[in-house]
Task: structure prediction
Amino acid sequence: MEVISTIGEGLWAAFQMAWEVWWALVLGFALSGIVQAWVPRSRIEQALGGRGPREITLATGLGAASSSCSYAAIAIAKSMFAKGASFASAMVFQFASTNLVFELGIVIWIFIGWRFTLAELIGGLILIPLVWLGLRLFVTRRLEDEARRHAEAAEAGHIHSSASSEGLAPRRRLTSVQAWSDVAHNFRNDWEMLWREIISGFAIAGFISLLPAGVFNGLFITDAPWPARLLENVVLGPIVAILSFVCSVGNAPLAAVLWGGGISFAGVIAFIYADLLIVPIVIAYTKYYGRELTARLVAIMFAAMVLAALAVDGTFSAAGLVPSKRPSIDSISSRGISWNYTTFLNIIFLAVAVALFGLTLRRGAKDPVCGMTVDRRAGKPTSTYEGRTYYFCSEGCKAKFDADPERYVDALGRQAVALEHARHGH
Result:
C-alpha cells in the first residue's frame, strides 16, 4: 500500500505542475503553429549556405520562429544541411528552434520566474556564437563534406511540409479557413511529437519532488565556496539533463525542482540547454553525420553550454538579477487547484485546443507512413490503393507507400482493430 500511495503522490504532484502551465503550453504551441504555417520554410535552406555572421544571425532568427521539439529539430537541421545549408547554420537553427521559443520561455517564467526566462534568452544568444566559433575552429571543410554525404544517405526524420496558405496576404490569413487549418495541423503535429517528452518531464519532476532535500545537497555541491560550487553545478547540470532523457519543454519542471533543491543559477541554465545532448539524440547525430563529427559536435556544444551559463551567471550577478529566494520543492509540486486566474486561463485555452484539434478532425487525414495529420484539402500528395485514397505530408512519404503499400495498409488495419477492441472493452 505504501508503494501505491507513493505512486499516487508522485502522479498528483506531476498533475499539479502540469495544471499550472497548461494554458501556457497551448499558447506557445498555437503561436508556434502560426509561425510554422505562415512563415515559408522554402527560403530558409537557400539563405543558410554560408558560415559567416550574416547566415548565423539569420539562422538564429529563423530557428526561434520555427519552434520544434528536439527530435524534429535535429531532423529539420539534418535535412537543411543535406540540401545545402552550412553545418554551422544548421546547428544554430537547431538550437534556436528548441531553446529560444515561445512555449519554453513562458513555462520557465511560470515555474521559476522571469529572470530565468531572460537568462535563458541571453544565454542562448551567447551560446550560439560560441557554438559557431567552435565549429569554425574544429570542423574542417573535409569533415563537413563527409558529414554531408552521411546526411544525404540518412533517412529524413519527421519534418513538417510547407503550408498551402503561404501565398496569402496577412489580412486574408486571419479570415481564411485554409490558413487556420494549416495552423491547426502544425499545432496537432507538434503535440503528437512532443507529448511523450512533456508527460515524462512532468512525471519525473513529480516523483523527484518527493525526495528529501538532502538528495540534491548530495548530488550538487550547495554549501561549498562560490567558485567550486559554481563550476561543479554548471558541469553537472548538463550531465543530469543528458541522463534524464527528457528534452524540450519537459525540461522546465525538472529545472524548477533542481532550483528548489539547491542547484546554482548557472547550473539551472546549463541544465535547460542540454536537451540537444540527451543519449537518443547523440545516437541520431552519429547516424546523420558520422562518429568523428558527432564527437566534435558534442564536445563543442557541451563546452559552449558551460561557458554560456557561466557568462550569464556573471552578468546577472553583476546586475543584481540572480534570484535570492528559492521556492521549496513542495511549493513547486503542490500548488493546489482552485478557482483562480490559472483555472480561468486553462478553460479558455482548453477551448482553443479543442477548436484547433476539431479543425484537424474535420479536414484531416493521417499519413500512413509517418503518422502526421495532413489537410485533405491542401493539395497534398495522394495515392489510391484498392479503391481507397491515402494522403501524405510529402512526396517522400508517398514514394515509400507506393513502393510497398501493403506494409502500411496492414499497419493501419491493425491499429483500427486495436482501437475497436479498446472501445468495446476487449
Residues 368-423 form one domain. The first helix runs from residue 2 to 38.
